[in-house]
Amino acid sequence: MEPSTPASAAPFVLPRSTGLIVLEDCFHFPGCFLPLFIYEQRYRQMLDHALSTSRLFCVGTMHDDELLPVSTAGLIRASKKRDDGTSHVMLYGVTRVRFTDWTQEKPFRIALIEPFHTLKQSSDEEMEAMKLEAMSMLPPATPECGEAIRTLRSGLCQMTCPDLVCDIISYHFIRDPAVLRRLLLEPYLEERYSVLIHELKKLRDE
């Protein structure tokens, strides 16, 4: 549960297309690190394609036999290839994207993508209040993961972007695939926080 930081201070330019690895109920969010073990031949090719182009690819999420139309463009922060051709990859979530079409389906998918913008209707003060409410409901530190939670909480306290805080808390603490699906697909930040706070309350009351 390490706090996540942006990959670079340079402006991020979203490419026109990106490769996909399709996984069942695997939800990646902006601001979060996702470790992956790449072993299938088609995804080895996808990784090579990403490393030779934008260093970006998406995790396409299969949920109830449906490929979700929204994902997170992930930047390859580390990739270590083993002697057998498999690779350990650390993927950093940069921004939500929507799939608009396919330019390739075999041996791996390549999707045309567009930004999936986060929408807000509330004032900065109201968003800050939602952020603080969600943070106040984080589970207490335990002997097993106390240091990790303290480090995560400290990192979140330093973040000024409520979008990022919501996504990072969702990624680390929500486990229900149906809820994660809602959080990933929801464009309005207020609704994301409403869902997140409701789920955190349920966790606290268990």
TrEMBL record:
Pfam families with a match to the protein in the record: LON_substr_bdg
Domain Lon N-terminal stretches: 18-204
Cross-referenced SMART domains: LON (SM00464)
Name of protein: Lon N-terminal domain-containing protein
PROSITE patterns according to UniProt: LON_N (PS51787)
SUPFAM superfamilies linked: PUA domain-like
Cross-referenced InterPro entries: Lon_prtase_N, Lon_prtase_N_sf, PUA-like_sf
Organism annotation: Brevifollis gellanilyticus
Gene3D superfamilies the record matches: LON domain-like (2.30.130.40)
